[in-house]
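Sorry to interrupt, but I need a hand with the structure work. It will help me judge whether the discrete encoding reads sensibly. Write everything out right here, beneath this request:
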Amino acid sequence: MDAEKRIAELEEEIRNTKRHKGTEHHIGRLLAKIARLRRELILQASKKSGGGGGFTIKKEGNATVVFVGFPSVGKSTLLSLVTNAESKVAAYDFTTISCIPGMMDYNGIKIQILDLPGIIRGAGEGKGRGKEVISAARSADLILILLDATKSGQLQIIRDELTKVGIRFNSKPPDLVLKKDVRGGVTVISARRLTRISREEIFAILNEYGIHNGTLTIRQNIDANQFIDFLEKNRMYIPAVIVVNKIDLVDNFNIKEDYLPISAVNKTNIEELKKLIFEKLNFIKVYTKPRKEVKMDEPMVLKRGSTIKIFCKKLPRGFLKNFRYALVWGKSVKFPGQRVGLNHVLEEGDIIRIVKR
């Protein structure tokens, strides 16, 4: 039986199983099996479409943003408004059949925008151009989900397709620690009361992944799917903005999530969208300090939370290879010129001098 049919059967079995203490172990095993089958589907889709036709866009600029949405939602028109790119625009589905790149300049920071072909139901299994679309989304710094104000249900379908391939937008990884051992069984230590997953489910899922000994420390109230995400180790936690286009054609539009209403045709809220993209990418600017003077006119743009190691990777290769220590002036240190190592986290406006061997 192929993976898709098996997943459908397992999901149906879960829906038909009443949840109580006697079935929690069984449900945990079913959820883990579904996750492993989805991983198998993605690998199959990758092999099928690996012989050309994929997107070979080189990442440029300080960050990459991808447009994800259904066909004819207005991605191509929006791309031309926020960047220097010209993507073909027409009033019919699948105008864009390849990945169109453009560059947005905001406050001197270069942001690469990618207009991807429209997503369809089943993209997570590689249907349509699903494999390429999802692959590009997994490597992005920010996902812009573009919805059509005249149509309902699009956000949930997009969320489902991204979830199938391990993308968790606007979420954080679950706060868990697993230390495996060779004997002694599994010990579960929970800092919080668990109301969304039982110990029976935890042991069933661990067993499905072949983990029989070790210590699991849980620091938040997780559910079974979050626990599986932790064990899969291939989830991408990517920030996203939700944008609703064609807002001029409806009287109201309601979804639970925060969103920015726009009209690409009337150019409504386009500048607000540029600002939102910039803010969501959470940039900081830092400066290099050679021996003589600080290069204040040549800042390096990094993502907030970046370390000295990430800073060095943006310099010529020898700086990281021959790194001894760094001297830092700014908000991230206790005193000017403090000596720090590669794991030191930088802050906005920091000044750095790298000392090599």
Notes: The chain has three domains: 3-48+174-232, 63-171+235-281, 283-356. The chain is about 30% helix and 25% strand. The first strand starts at residue 63 and ends at 69. Residues 49-53, 91-95 have pLDDT under 50 and may be disordered.
